[in-house]
Write a structure and sequence with these properties.
Elements lengths: L7 H11 L2 H12 L2 E2 H8 L3 H13 L3 E6 L2 E6 L6 H8 L6 H9 L8
Antiparallel strand pairs: 1-3, 2-3
Helix pairs in contact: 3-4
Length: 114
């Protein structure tokens, strides 16, 4: 596999985005499974407008993908982003968020769309 290089500006932008705790948490969760805004509101105990603002920044930087399912919009980590390897390295030093997502499922608070 060929190594992808980022410009200093590109990497600086990614690191600045991940320097915010909320966006770092969002990336932890969407790396485990796709999540909608309402699930992230529950997981992070923040308002919907706040979560939406952070997601917009991550989406503008192409760090997350957006997928519509009916009335819901789900977000997932963009595995094809040039900084994906770096992001994985950073997230590898944090708890992965699986436990919290499972707890949300156990409380029947996950949105299931097929």
């Amino acid at each position: 596999m060929e190594k992808t290089y980022l410009s200093i500006e590109e990497l600086s932008t990614v690191l600045k985005l991940l320097g915010d705790r909320t966006r770092l948490d969002i990336m932890r969760y969407v790396s485990v499974d796709e999540c909608c805004v309402c699930e992230l509101v529950e997981l992070l105990n923040l308002s919907q407008p706040s979560i939406s603002q952070h997601l917009r920044k991550l989406k503008d930087a192409r760090l997350v993908n957006e997928k519509r399912k009916g009335n819901w919009v789900f977000y997932s980590k963009n595995m094809n982003h040039p900084a994906s390897e770096i992001i994985n390295g950073i997230l590898g030093h944090l708890p992965d968020g699986k436990k919290e997502i499972e707890e949300l499922s156990n409380q029947n608070m996950r949105i299931i769309c097929d």
